[in-house]
Amino acid sequence: MSSPASEARLEPFRLRGANFNLLVLRLLDPRVEVIVPALADQFRRAPGFLRNAPIVLGLDDLDPAAAPDFAHLTSQLRSVHIAPIGTTGGGPEIRAAAQAAGLPPLRAAGGDQPVQAAPAPAPEPMPMPEPPPPSGWQPTMVVDQAVRAGQRIWAQGCDLIVRGTVNPGAEVIADGNVHVYGTLRGRAIAGGAENLSARIFALNFEPELVSIAGYYAVRDGLGDAPLGRAVQVCLIGESMRFDKLG
After folding, report:
1. Quick check: pTM over 0.85?
2. Which string of DSSP letters, residue by residue, matches 74-94?
3. Which domains does the chain show, CATH number per domain?
4. pLDDT digit string (tens) for 22-62?
């Protein structure tokens, strides 16, 4: 026998607009046999990065005449625990090839119009209401304790301050800046909302990975970064710069 509460709720589902923080994987080479091993190599250097994460494939840098085998690419990405959910950029032909493999074109939050794919014999979808625009920057999120391995903290629409250590295997994410007033040993991701001016600050810089607005560097790729020191990380063009503080 159904309860009065279940009988009162007649609607089987609800739809609403929402914004999500997604990484874009910019494809610079159409060959699946090149892309996937390169990603797997990054995973070995930064365990857990992008594991089971939904991503968007960026098509702007690909030659429209040499589209990847999107069905094979999708299969291979899922085999290394990456979940491609759609595409951004690219011309009509390459977008159509991706859509035929189940990767629809997506638009960035706040964009004027969705990217139009090549016509397909499908019924017109019912128009959905646009999500409300962001109400503005929110107060800074402050975390007063250490961030343990396996924890993920995301400061949506604001900066993040961690007053303790970010341990190996932990992840801190902010749409603005990330401040770690302790040792950064895990992963720090700033500028999650494509904020290219975001920065990462750490009093003791020993990260597994740092990322700003989708550009990232793993521990083996930090070059001459002053490890073990107080450091500021920022973007200069598409390159990361690591400056000592103090």
Report:
1. no
2. HHHHHHTTEEEEEEES--HHH
3. 23-100 (3.30.70.260), 141-244 (2.160.20.70)
4. 678 888 888 999 988 888 777 666 656 666 778 888 898 88
